[in-house]
Amino acid sequence: MGKLGFVSLFRKKKIESPSADHNSLARVIGMPSLIFFGVGGIVGTGLFSITGIAASEHAGPAVILSFFIGAIACAFIGLCYSELAGMITVSGSSYSYTYIAYGEIIAWMVGWNLVLEYAVGAGAVAVSWSKYMLSLLEGFGIHPDQRYIASPFETIKLADGTVTHGIINLPSMVIVIILSFVLMKGIRESLTLNNIVVFIKIFVVIALIAFGLPYIHASNFVPFIPENVENQFGHFGYSGILQAAGMVIFAYIGFDSVSSTAQEVKDPAKNIPKAILIIIATCAIIYVLFAFVIVGLVYYKDLVGDAAPVATAINHTPYVWLQPVVKFSILFGYIPILFLLLIGQTRVFYSLARDGLIPTFFSKTHPKYKTPCYSHIFFMIMICFLCAFLPMDILGNMCSIGALFAFVFVCSGVIILRRTYKDYPRTFKAPGGDIIPAIGVITSLVLMYSLNGLTWTMMSIWLTIGLIIYFSYGYWHSKLNKKLENI
Fold first, then answer.
1. Which of 82, 92, 120, 459 could form an S-S bond across to 351 if both were Cys, CB 3.0 to 4.6 Å?
2. b/e string for 156-172 if b means 16 or more Cβ within 10 A?
3. Does a structural domain hold residue 461?
4. How far apart are CA 132 and CA 32, in angstroms?
5. DSSP state, 157?
6. 154 and 170 Cβ atoms separated by less than 8 Å
7. Beta partners for 149?
């Protein structure tokens, strides 16, 4: 196996044609499906649950600015993804990019954090889905035992007034299991369902904005930036806007997953960069408008602890009868988000296994459906555990910091690859020289800094576990390592 050497930790892959991968995936995703796929994955959880929490606990009405800041940050980051996706058209997204730009150890850390991002992100979406399902059922007079729709860390109030803790979130597990098996049958069937659901969801969101605008109250925007009277970072004031921006990054996560499907996209070098920019622009407009309507209809202090701010906002209009329709639409709207996260994480695991950093068992595809079924099964079990026993706030913040960690290396990787692959053909190049990638790095680091200490501690533990796995298995079984030893 050889000896562990510092230099070998940074061994790099070269840019190769995806056809070089003997186990390549079927190319079935066209441009329209790719855009619907991305928009459907982004618009959802943040819009339907994070908005109220970010406004009531951090930014007040200025949560509008937080969404705007998040959109600008993602635009710079998206331009970097577009450039790299146009020159590196293999599965793995951030992982593949950093393997070529930085080397194996950094690529492993980024890939390991992508696993975190997608897994806890899917868990958070599943938890939020279960809360809207509970709200919908209660609207029809059905009151299930909330102990089985909440994690042990959540305090709940039962129908008889008893205050207790949850036991397990069963509905979130059920939706993860169902969608995982759908994906195992093949991405074509999944995208057909996704396109239908996304069309309905975007239509409903636009309708809600249109119906809500006439009923907003100017008084709800005063004060626009509530004073940080406790002098506590992130609790209103300008620091609150910043912390809310870091929080709502979770709401924008999804555009980076688009590039992880490169081996299944038709003409990826052309379609992925265009799709990423269109997706970010579309979602940014929707988010800013929606946040404006929510805080315009409901005074921000009335959104404290509100897991369903959309339903609350409708109560402040003459359209209260729309509540069940909206909740039902939101439940369906969460489906493509889960699809996006489930697909993204299995593709990253597929790439890690293909490179020998985890057992090659995970790189095997189903003989009939050509999908990474073993990775799907592994993550189905992992996500079920997460969504069953952890609350949404912990999952959401972990997802954000995992994504931002990857964004830092992707943006800086653009600067490196412009020098190491100076003459390599690119279908798209971010304008302004190195300014845009540098801004992407800075904004990602600032938003990471804004997240709380618990989130940083949990990420540190996750990275430590990842490094243990790498040095005990990945380093020694790396296919690139074996290739270099044979030279």
1. 92
2. beeeeeeeeebbebbbb
3. yes
4. 29
5. E
6. no
7. 169
Burial classification of residue 239, based on how many CB atoms lie within 10 Å of its CB (0-12 exposed, 13-18 middle, 19 or more buried): middle
What is the C-alpha separation between 286 and 385, in angstroms, rounded?
32
Mean pLDDT for the stretch of residues 182-208: 72
Query: What is the average per-residue pLDDT within 24-41?
Result: 75
- What's the token pair of residue 249? 């990054």
Residue 17 lies in a domain: no
Give the domain extent around 253: 34-480
Let me know the angle formed at the C-alpha of 265 by 20 and 24, rounded to the nearest 5 degrees: 30
Cβ(390)–Cβ(130) below 8 Å: no
Query: How many other β-carbons are positioned within 10 Å of the β-carbon of residue 452?
Result: 15
CA distances from 460 to 246, 402, 468 (A): 18, 11, 12
Q: Which residues contact 112 (CB under 8 A, 6 or more apart)?
A: 462, 463, 466, 469, 470
Q: Model's pTM, two decimal places? A: 0.83
Main-chain dihedrals φ then ψ at residue 372, nearest 5 degrees: -75, 75
Q: What value does the mean pLDDT take over residues 292-319? A: 85
- State whether residue 135 is helix, strand or coil: helix
- At 106 the pLDDT is 93
Beta-sheet strands, E only, within 79-235: 155-157, 163-165
Domain containing 350 — which CATH number? 1.20.1740.10
Judged on CB neighbours under 10 Å (0-12, 13-18, 19+), 453 is exposed
The pLDDT confidence band at residue 22, using thresholds 50, 70 and 90, is very low
Contacts of 394 (CB under 8 A, 6+ apart): 153, 454, 458
pLDDT tens figures, 124-163: 889 889 988 988 898 888 989 889 998 898 888 777 788 8
Question: 281: burial class by Cβ within 10 Å (0-12, 13-18, 19+)?
Answer: middle
Buried b (16+ CB within 10 A) or exposed e, 14-36: eeeeeeeeeebbeeebebebbbb
Split into its structural domains, the chain has a count of 1
Question: What is the arithmetic mean of pLDDT over 26-36?
Answer: 79
Min mean pLDDT across 15-24, 250-259, 335-344, 361-370 is at 15-24
Q: Mapped to the 3 state alphabet, what secondary structure does 73-98 carry? A: HHHHHHHHHHHHHCCCCCCCCHHHHH
- Reduced to 3 states (helix: H, G, I; strand: E, B; else coil), residue 29 is strand
Domain annotation covers residue 280: yes
CB 291 within 8 Å of CB 62: no
- Mean per-residue pLDDT, 304-332: 81
Region 371-395: mean pLDDT is 87
**Tens digit of pLDDT for each residue in 59-108?**
999 999 999 899 889 889 988 888 887 787 665 578 888 989 999 999 99
Tell me whether residue 20 is in a domain.
Answer: no
d(CA 478, CA 280): 35
